[in-house]
Specification:
The chain is an alpha+beta fold and 690 residues long. Helix content is 47%, strand content 14%. It contains 25 helices and 18 strands. The strands form 5 sheets. Strands 1, 2, 3, 7, 8, 9 and 10 form a 7-stranded mixed beta sheet that branches. The two termini are 50 Å apart.
Length: 690
């Protein structure tokens, strides 16, 4: 077969959705590569490209076609293929005709199960150029596009109208029509700098030709790095540091083909407005990069990325400054207006805001949370009065002008307005910290009052929503219960709060008395929240078997659960672990077969074998010290001490029959094993370990 060649596919479109661009790029490239592999043309090396008006993939070293395949088709059994005189039957004739050959050209296949007619032939492989169009169409059809659109008078559907298609194999165009557009070798440059067509000689020319002549940096990662570098350089020239959020950087990268950083400025008077509001409108509305000083304070500058290299950059700067000014003026107005009345004055208005129609208003929720926060504060040593005060104010900022306009500032503006009203610092900080963590990996509340409020709010939501039978499904979680559950677990575990989750849920359920019967939902909520720990530990590299071993003994304090998990992980690293886990599994199986109650009293006079006497002696010698460790929650130390039992346990199972006919002897040995298992079960069910 002749040597390999490169393949280039480019789909040229109207501007693609910026937040979806990376996903579309990866899905398209993966679809093409998988299609090639499924056709017997892979595996291959490839590079994926994406810019606002194009998706492309360059496949390197693709063979010119499929390899020929030896095909074998089995026909009728010989007994049915020929009559007594050796003449072909209709079955044989029909099979030969379907294969396009004479009966005499068929071969015979002999097996230990009989003999059949068989047709063998060499199926020529198809050319790559004949296979690629269908592969591309399939990859485009499989893209994660929630809603496709049509354009013109054709039937083609895509996320945006398609204007050109490039399909080159080596130096030749693959003759095909994709989404109603004939494929060719002509790409397009920048919409303004080079709108004319650019002719591609070979796939390897693609990225360099677009950059050197077409004013398009088509490589997403390279374009992203260029933007970051320009923004950081511009910020440094201003004596500051750019705030570069990863998601915003990706979105801006998806908006431009030829990035050019432009520095803008705004009036210093706007810095009197909370900087979170200014940063929010710069990032979310205008896609600007804010600039802060060494202390993290906002400076009166921003950096935007233009998609043109303008001859008059000052006009671009002025335009962006003109756009941001009225938005800042609005934020300034909201800030001044909101401070004219105390935050607490909004509490009454929360009676008109529905939390959930069966669970009442946000006012009702704040009353429940305030009560629960007072109880939690006592348990963790926080100021109960401050916790209740923070809970009452916790949703008041939702009624302010600023949060109505900038919903993402809920909590943050509550902190500012509470501080302005003279509320205690811990109360003001808690209003913002109640929403932490907002997502996986986010920071946790730092203050005791903030931790209490964050827990109380989530616990109230979890219990209430479960109580009305609206627990989340695989597709729907409108109240964010998964996030709430993980937030509760992270706060309890990572902030080392030794609280019993079942007790917390029962306390939360009490707040719903007279409205909905919440107490029966507590076991479901407890199971749901503890199950969220599975994903929590998997993300941290903890083996599923370790999680299952701890879950089996049903600890209800997440911090205690975490200490057990760490102890079992440590135990598995000991040389004695494998043998003891196997022994524990054997003990578990023995005890499971015992009918009636398990005996736990060991009669030393009935210990007849030296090895069982030795096991009992070692067990009793360790019991007190191990129990002390376990009582103190020192599970790692406890399991490490128990690892010393490996030798006596191995010897016991090697030389002793437990289920003997003598009932007294049998019960005594079962009691010995039950006491041994009981110590391990105070940490985890080791029988679940591999």
């Amino acid at each position: 077969m002749s040597k390999t060649q490169d393949l280039l596919i480019e789909i040229g479109t109207e501007e693609l959705p910026p937040k979806a661009l990376k996903g579309l790029r990866d899905a398209f490239a993966d679809g093409v590569v998988k299609g090639l592999a499924d056709a017997g043309l892979g595996p291959v090396d490839h590079v994926a490209y994406a810019a606002p008006r194009r998706l492309a993939v360059w496949v390197r070293g693709l063979p010119p076609g499929q390899a020929d395949q030896a095909m074998e088709r089995r026909g009728p059994a010989l007994a049915a293929a020929f009559d007594r005189d050796g003449n072909p039957t209709r079955a044989a004739q029909g099979f030969a005709a379907s294969c396009g050959v004479a009966v005499g050209d068929l071969e015979r296949l002999e097996t230990d199960k009989g003999a059949w007619l068989v047709h063998r032939h060499l199926e020529p492989g198809r050319d790559t150029v004949a296979l690629v169009p269908a592969i591309v169409e399939a990859a485009l059809s499989a893209l994660p596009i929630p809603k496709r659109m049509r354009w013109g008078d054709g039937d083609a559907e895509f996320v945006r109208p398609v204007h050109w298609v490039v399909m080159l194999f080596g130096t030749e165009v693959i003759q095909a029509s994709i989404l109603g557009i004939p494929a060719g070798r002509e790409t397009r440059g920048h919409r303004f700098h080079h709108p004319a067509a650019l002719s591609l000689s070979a796939p390897s020319d693609y990225a360099s030709l677009l950059e050197t002549q077409g004013w398009v940096k088509v490589d997403f990662e390279a374009r992203r790095a260029a933007i970051r570098g320009q923004v950081e350089t511009a910020a440094a020239a201003l004596g500051g540091r750019a705030v570069i959020e990863a998601d915003l950087l990706d979105e801006v990268t998806a908006l431009v083909e030829w990035p050019v950083a432009v520095v803008g400025h705004f009036e210093a008077r706007f810095l009197d407005v909370p900087q979170e509001a200014l940063i929010s409108t710069m990032q979310d509305n205008q896609k600007y990069f804010p600039v802060v000083d060494g202390e993290g304070r906002l400076m009166p500058h921003f950096i935007t990325i233009s998609n043109v290299d303008s001859r008059q950059p000052e006009r671009v700067r002025e335009g962006n400054e003109r756009v941001i000014r009225p938005r800042f003026a609005d934020a300034e107005f909201f800030w001044n207006q909101d401070r004219r009345r105390p935050l607490e004055s909004h509490l009454e208005a929360l009676k008109t805001v529905v939390f959930q129609h069966k669970l009442g208003s946000l006012y009702d929720k704040t009353q429940r949370v305030a009560r629960l926060a007072g109880l939690l504060a006592q348990a963790v040593g926080a100021d109960a009065a401050q916790a209740r005060r923070a809970a009452l104010l916790s949703k008041c900022d939702l009624q302010t002008l600023m949060v109505f306009e900038f919903t993402e500032l809920q909590g943050t503006m509550g902190r500012y307005y509470a501080a302005h009203d003279g509320e205690p610092e811990a109360v003001a900080a808690a209003l913002e910290q109640q929403y932490l963590p907002r997502h996986a990996g986010d920071a946790l509340p730092t203050g005791p009052v903030g931790r209490v409020l964050a827990l109380a709010d989530r616990l109230d939501t979890l219990v209430g929503i479960f109580a009305i039978g609206q627990k989340p499904t695989g597709a729907k979680d409108p109240f964010g219960l998964r996030r709430a559950a993980l937030g509760v677990l992270r706060i309890l575990v990572e902030l080392e709060l030794p609280l019993d989750l079942e007790t917390l849920l029962q306390q939360a359920a009490t707040g719903y008395e007279g409205r909905v019967p919440a107490a029966p939902a507590v076991p479901q909520v407890l199971e749901y929240v503890m199950e969220r720990l599975r994903a929590y530990y998997l993300d941290r590299g903890i083996r599923p078997e370790v999680f299952e071993a701890v879950l089996a003994v049903r600890p209800t304090r997440p911090l205690d659960f975490d200490r057990r998990v760490r102890a079992v992980e440590h135990f598995l690293g000991l040389p004695e672990a494998e043998a003891l886990a196997a022994a524990h599994k054997r003990i578990h199986n023995i005890l499971r077969k015992v009918e009636g109650g398990l005996p736990d009293r060991v009669e030393t006079a009935l210990l007849t074998e030296p090895v069982e006497q030795d096991l009992h002696r070692h067990l009793e010698g360790l019991r007190e010290a191990v129990a002390a460790h376990l009582d103190a929650g020192e599970y790692t130390e406890g399991l490490t001490r128990l690892a010393a039992l490996r030798g006596p346990v191995d010897a016991f199972f090697d030389q002793v029959m437990v289920m003997v006919e003598d009932p007294a002897l049998r019960d005594n040995r079962v009691a010995l094993l039950n006491r041994l298992a009981g110590l391990f079960l105070r940490v985890a069910d080791l029988s679940r370990l591999p």
